[in-house]
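For the sake of clarity, the format in which proteins appear in this thesis is described at this point. The record quoted next illustrates the convention:

___
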Amino acid sequence: MLDINRLRVFRAVVAEGSVVRAAGNLGYTPSAVSQHLSALQRETGLTLVERRGRGIVPTGVGRLLAAESEAVLERLARLEALTGDLRAGRVGSLLVSHFASAGSTWIPPIVAALTREFPTLRLDLRLTELLPETGDRPDVEIFVEGAASSPLDGYDIEPLLTEPYVAVVPADHPLAGAGAVALAGLRDEPWVDNDVARGACRRNLLRACAAAGFAPGFHIETQDYPTAIAFVAAGAGITVVPRLGLVSPPPGIAVLDLVDPTPTRSIMVRSRESLRENPAVRRLLGLLRERAAGEPPSAG
């Protein structure tokens, strides 16, 4: 098994590009850092660094090992923090993942309430789309059905909300005052795409469009709902977003209900079975239910 402390030293040297600077950061002598590097190279049987000028640089295999060790050391740091919290009688830390539009609407007031009620709680907030890159599994995740970041085994799963999609059109569009429009009525419009991840939200919309007998003509691709809506406000086309995606809509747009059919998405929450009795998790789930019901977070 690789020595964790040697991996930490190696990562520090790679980050600094210098044994001397890494030693200063770690509180070691340069000779001690060099000894750790030599020991790690013997342990792995690999040449991990090589000298270049006055500094050192990682070899190809060294860069790979450094990159892979980053996630391992991060998870180990979380484990060490958890054991410290448990020894001190604190609630601990939670890794909470969420999709973007929930992050801009639900998460800020919920986190504010949790930090007031559990001042020693550590919260690590991540976008659901980014978690597969780290390999971490969340303690609690707010996700769109069909778009969880990892397998669902070992979790309690609860539906929170099924919400409709709406059409966003320029304020001077002929449909702007209609209040509602059949989805097929948007067939010939220039569409602004809003889901660079090509995730479950986009799939739900495309299925509804297929049921209405057409495929959207995406003329502009953007990465998120606010950017797409800004393009609509500028007159560049129309877009379709879940209602939760309409956070602080700008002037210059009109919002229409969609019918025949109405695209929807289902928002779920999952929490680790092992954390069922964790008071912070229970409070977090309660706050999420309130937000899904359209209520402001209650005082603890």
